[in-house]
Structures are given as C-alpha cells and as structure tokens.
Amino acid sequence: MKKISLYTCALLLSASTLVAADSIDEAFKNGKVSGDITLYTIKTDNKDGVKNSGFTAGTIGLGYETDSYKGFSAKMAFRGNHEFSEVEENDYENSFVNDAIITEANIKYANKDFSLTLGRQVIDLEWLEDYNEAVVAAITAIPDTTIVAGYTHRQATSDEDESSDFTELTKKGAYVLDVKYNGIKDVEFNPYFYSAPDAVDFYGLKASYSSDIFSAIAHYASSNVDNKAKNDTTDDGNILNLEVGTTIAGISASIGYIKTDSKYGIGLMDTYGDNINLMDSGNQLYSADAKTFYGTLGYEVAGVELGALYSATEYSSSNYDENELNLTVGYKITDSLSVGVLYVNIDADDKDSDTNDNEYASLTLSYSF
What we know:
- The chain is mainly beta.
- The chain has 3 helices and 18 strands.
- It has helices at 6-16, 24-29, 91-95; strands at residues 32-46, 53-65, 72-86, 100-110, 114-122, 131-139, 145-156, 174-181, 187-196, 200-210, 214-225, 238-248, 251-260, 291-301, 304-315, 320-332, 337-347, 358-368.
- It has an 18-stranded antiparallel barrel.
- The radius of gyration is 21 Å and the shape is globular.
- 29% of the residues are buried.
- The model has no long low-confidence stretch (mean pLDDT 95).
C-alpha cells in the first residue's frame, strides 16, 4: 500500500489552509477523486511436501476528498476485490477475507500549527501502520518539531495482495506519542511511546542521518508486556537496528544489523505494524534471540528500477538459520500505468520443523488516477 506519513500530512494540511473554499458547496465541488485499478498475481513454490499456492486478483480503489472549508475537510475511500483464479482452494480467501471494504471515512481539521483527523484513516508510523479507526493529532507549532499523538481502536489491511476486516488487535486499543525533531542539519531524532492497555507498553528512539551520499540509522526499542498478556513465549522484549548506506553514481547500497531479546524477541511491539523489517517475508527477524545481517542494492537504468535485498538470520537458542533473497523490478509505462515484479527465495533451516523452504514470484500491474 502506498502511504503518506502523518508528518507529511501535517505539512500538507497546514499548507491547504492557505487556499481554501469559501463555502461548503464549493468545498465539495472542488474536491478531488483519486484511485487505482490493479491486477495482481502470485505463485508460491513450496518445498518439503507442502502444497504450492497462489492466486490472481483484481482490485479497485476509489477515494474522494473535499476541499478545505474553514480548516475542515472530509474523505471517503473504499477498495473492492475480485478473484480471477487460484492454485488451491481457499488460496485467495486466505488473503482476502472480504469482497469490499470502506478503508477511509474521516473528518479533518487543520491550521498552520495543528491538525486533527477523526475516523478511518491511513497511518504510517514506526510501529503503527495500515488503516485504523483512530483519532490522531499532529502539532507543528514548535520549530523543527512534529508531534503526533493518537489513539487507534480497530485496524484493517487492504491492498492489491490482501484485505482484512477492521478488528480489535487488543481489547482496549492503543495510544501513541511520536515526536520528530529536525533542528540539526541532515539529522532527525524520533523518540516515541506506545501503550496498549492490558497488553504492552513500549518506547524507543530512532536517530537518522542523511546526506547526498551517506546515511545512517541507530534505533533501539524496548517493551514492557502486561502480566495479563505474558506466557511461556511472550514477555518483555527489545530490538536494536543499526544501518549505514550510500549512493554513488546512481547506485544505492546499505548494510544493516538487527538484534532482538535473547528470550522473547521484540515482546509484542509489532502488534499494530512495523517498519524495521525491510524483507518481503522476514519470517524470523523478530524471533527470540534473532541476529540478522542484511544488505540492499538499488539502481535505475532506462527508467527501470532494479532492487535486491538479502538477509541472513540466526535465531533461537538452537541456533537455527534462515536466509532470504528479494529481487524487484519496477517500471512506469506512463505517468499513471506501472508494472512491478517481485521474486523471493527463502532458505529455511531443515532442523526447524516449523519452517520450510519456499520461493514465490508476483506481478503487479496498476493504473492510478
């Protein structure tokens, strides 16, 4: 799913107050329609006696957002899904639990220092993603600082390859406080705190540096799992992520390291989403005692975007290993029509009976407007 961060939204909403409609009727007349028509197909070749799987699906997304009137605006969006074929029975249904879903239905208020969004909305924070029934405030009144505070009650996914209903991930929802400070050139500090009552509280700090040819990330987070949610495999956890990258002669490259708690992994921090895992699957990246080295390469030639990601993870006290390779190709046929190809190969540890080797490939053809 293509996402716009809440920080970008805060800036756009503040700017939109400078040019606004003079009446409610004009706000609706000046509203904008956007959407996409997407064809998606995937085929998975499983090993170790597991049946192959796959499906082909078509999805249509359509959204309408009013112009701003006295700082207020509204948005409604939905996505519909249709099955064309599947390899095995229920392959499609395992990814799409509905035929259509209202993904966004919200009211916003924004001025130059503050915005508030109430209702179904897209959220893209470090540990909070996808579509949420939420109330979110973004404060930009402090120089070089954006503060996001919010509460989410239910969450859903809806994209070209999956769709779920809005459900409660924890009984009492989750609160978030996320701050980004950009007062030092090329540097960003991002402290945050999340609380899902009766489930987990966690906090973290992400520091980033980015210039024309060099980038670096240092990120640490730790969780405190509520006693009601603890069991033999779930307790307090933590994660460390270090990464450096460079861009030279049009080639982008990065290497990184991720480590989790030796007993309980990340301790429920990924309940509402995550952004550390760059791999398409990354099955063991957040497992207990997981140590992952990864690397990325990217290059564009003649308008074709080429990408490669590789990760090697050692996890569990039994020292299991899992390696994953992702290869991507993307091309914009026109400004509105694009095609993307993904190939994934997962080399699982034969000693871990809960995993199996597999490889899969997908093709996405999308027209957006």
